[in-house]
Design brief:
Blueprint lengths: L1 H15 L23 H5 L3 H14 L1 H14 L5 E4 L4 H15 L10 H14 L2 E12 L2 E8 L15 E2 L2 E3 L5 E7 L17 E5 L3 E5 L17 H22 L3 E5 L29 E5 L9 H12 L7 H4 L8 H7 L1 H30 L16 E4 L8 H14 L4 H7 L4 H18 L14 H26 L1
Antiparallel strand pairs: 1-11, 2-3, 2-8, 4-5, 5-6, 6-7, 9-10
Helix pairs in contact: 3-4, 4-6, 7-8
Length: 491
């Protein structure tokens, strides 16, 4: 009996060792009621369609949500990146860059969109749907290159009936390690008026994974599909709209002449007055009331003083999942000075850099690889090396600086101190340093030919060690000559 009591005592001590956040009490039970241990796919699959539909609804009807999506898309992608080949062979690099640029700007190469427009649509889809899908195909030649990339809405990715859900996960057939093998796309959008009622095998197209670029942000290992990036902000958008509508209704009530007519007269019987009867009142006039009757206007209790603060807090929270500061989310820097406005953007600039690098690695590099693989087979091509040897980079559009003078001074200082290079500075502005140098040389040559002054100063000459030694010798000779002249005067 004594041993049993000791064992129970040890168990109670072990149960007492816990985290405060793991305690379930009557105060927090409702808050944590929906916390579960489902894996990523079990959590996402039954709710993905609802999340997409609600995100689309808010973006269609909420100006703040629409503005956030457009701002984020334009900031991250802009007009699209430029290819900078870095093999060291100028002629070879120029051939690849010019060929890819001509192909990428051809609308036929990207399913009626050029590369920049296609990337903007991709980011828009990530915010709205959580996924973006590209499928490569061959079509009519666009500049002798038949390769095309067509975007498909994620709603069309579905598992045909009768297939093993362990092997085909939400429309994606995987191997034993979870790597995609095939994608199953509905022949029509499930929301189409022409969509059939069956999801049988004949209703889907089976596409090899090698032809598909499936873009989504993985937040958990084993995750097969993505959720809209705006998901945490959806309840906030709804709250903001409800609060705004409530403020409008309260203001309208206060502006209108509305109230109640009442009397305490003992001579009035209940049967003499109709319940909830409405009385038309003439505007801009005083009214007389029957004896014993009075009128009282409704008072609209409206917390107008807190509306601005509430609105700013909600808008600021909606941008947090995207690392967008309040002045970017609201497109308003009225309460900022120059330093604080730029400082608040630092986290967003890092977000842009990370997303651009991610897009470059999983999307644009694959598109470039597909282009080079086909371009190298053209008769006029000079590509003789394996694709893995094609060193390259992507120059994204640079961020505009509010104070151009300070920006130019900072660039000059960095270049003079050796903290940066012309290649880095040009890449930050979305330019190719080689083309900038070539253009400057042409302008300098033409300006010299026409006798025009150049807008930029020539670099100061660099002193060599020999020049310094010669200057020291000259100064020494001058000192000796001065000494001889002094001696002659004394003599």
């Amino acid at each position: 009996m004594f041993e049993r009591i000791k064992k129970i005592s040890r168990i109670w001590k072990m149960l007492g060792r816990t985290y405060d956040a793991a305690e379930t009490t009557r105060h927090n039970r409702k808050h944590w009621a929906k916390a579960d241990g489902a894996d990523a796919d079990a959590l996402i699959e039954p709710r993905l369609s609802t999340l997409r539909n609600r995100a689309r609804y808010e973006i269609r009807n909420n100006s703040i949500a629409k503005g956030i999506v457009l701002t984020y898309t334009n900031e991250v992608v802009g007009s699209g990146p430029r290819l900078l080949m870095q093999t060291g062979n100028a002629g070879f690099d120029d051939e690849i860059e010019s060929g890819f640029e001509a192909w990428a700007k051809n609308p036929d190469a990207a399913g009626l969109l050029d590369l920049g427009a296609m990337l903007r649509l991709m980011v828009y889809q990530l915010l709205e749907c959580g996924e973006a899908i590209f499928v490569s195909q061959n079509g009519p030649a666009a500049g002798n290159v038949k390769l095309k990339y067509l975007m498909i809405e994620p709603d069309r990715l579905a598992t045909p009936l009768g297939m093993d859900p362990e092997k085909v996960r939400q429309g994606i057939e995987v191997d034993d390690l979870g790597r995609p093998l095939f994608y199953y796309f509905l022949k029509r959008h499930p929301g189409s008026a022409y969509m059939g009622s069956t999801l049988g095998e004949n209703s889907c197209n089976k596409i090899p994974a090698a032809r598909v670029i499936h873009v989504f942000r993985k937040e958990r290992p084993g995750q097969t599909r993505g959720v809209p990036w705006l998901t945490p902000s959806l309840p906030l958008f709804a709250q903001l709209r409800r609060y705004t509508l409530a403020m409008i209704r309260a203001a309208e009530t206060a502006a209108n002449i509305s109230g109640v007519v009442q009397t305490n007269s003992p001579d009035v019987m209940v049967a003499d007055v109709a319940d909830l009867d409405a009385i038309e009142m003439e505007a801009n006039s005083f009214l007389t009331m029957p004896a014993g009757w009075g009128a009282e206007q409704f008072k609209a209790e409206n917390p107008t003083a807190t509306y601005k603060e509430f609105r700013e807090q909600i808008i600021g929270e909606t941008g947090r999942p995207l690392n967008m500061p309040l002045n970017v989310t609201a497109a308003n820097s009225a309460g900022y000075n120059f330093a604080s406005g730029r400082m608040d953007r630092l986290s967003f600039e890092k977000e842009k850099a990370v997303v651009r690098d991610w897009i470059g690695g999983i999307v644009i590099d694959r598109i470039l690889g597909g282009f080079i693989a086909e371009y190298s087979n053209l008769p006029a091509s000079r590509l003789y090396f394996p694709i893995v040897q094609y060193s390259h980079a992507w120059a994204w559009p640079g961020a505009e600086h509010v104070d151009e003078a300070k920006s130019a001074t900072a660039k000059k200082t960095r270049l003079e101190t050796g903290d940066t290079t012309y290649a880095d500075e040009c890449a930050a502005a979305g330019k190719d340093w080689k083309k900038v140098f070539i253009q400057r040389a042409k302008e300098n040559e033409l300006a010299e030919e026409l006798g025009l002054p150049l807008p930029h100063s020539s670099p100061s000459p660099v002193k060599t060690e020999n020049e310094d030694d010669e200057k020291d010798d000259e100064e020494k000779d001058d000192e000796e000559k001065d000494d001889e002249e002094k001696d002659e005067k004394v003599a």
